Amino acid sequence: MNNTYALCAILTMALVTALLRFFPFVVMGKKKTPPFVEYLGKMLPYAVMAMLVVYCLKGINFTAFPFALPEIISVGVVVLMHVWKRNTLLSIIAGTVCYMIIIRLI
After folding, report:
1. Is residue 5 part of a domain?
2. Cα-based distances in Å from 83 to 14, 17, 60, 97
3. Within-domain flag for 69
4. Any domain includes 63
5. Domain that includes residue 91, residue range
6. pLDDT tens per residue across span 18-65
7. What is the DSSP letter of 64?
8. What pTM value is reported for the model?
9. What's the total number of domains in the chain?
10. Nearest Cα to 76, choosing from 98, 55, 58?
């Protein structure tokens, strides 16, 4: 692959990305955001987090050692950190670090 092809590919991807991001603003203009879009903006983050929790915990085996202990402790750390600091990123990082430490020690 030569440099010209790579440059053209990168420029094309950048242009398409920019157009897709600007498109809603061009179409909507200065109009008020529709209620359905506002509803999605409020509800989708919670739905995505719920899907991530289900995905992360789907393979838990309560009948074999360590009996889902790392997962349960890590979920507890995430919940406690979020209640304490109200910072989603910090909560996720703390839970991930906790889980990785526990699975390395058990």
Report:
1. no
2. 39, 36, 24, 18
3. yes
4. yes
5. 32-105
6. 999 999 888 878 788 889 989 999 999 889 889 988 998 999 998 988
7. S
8. 0.64
9. 1
10. 98
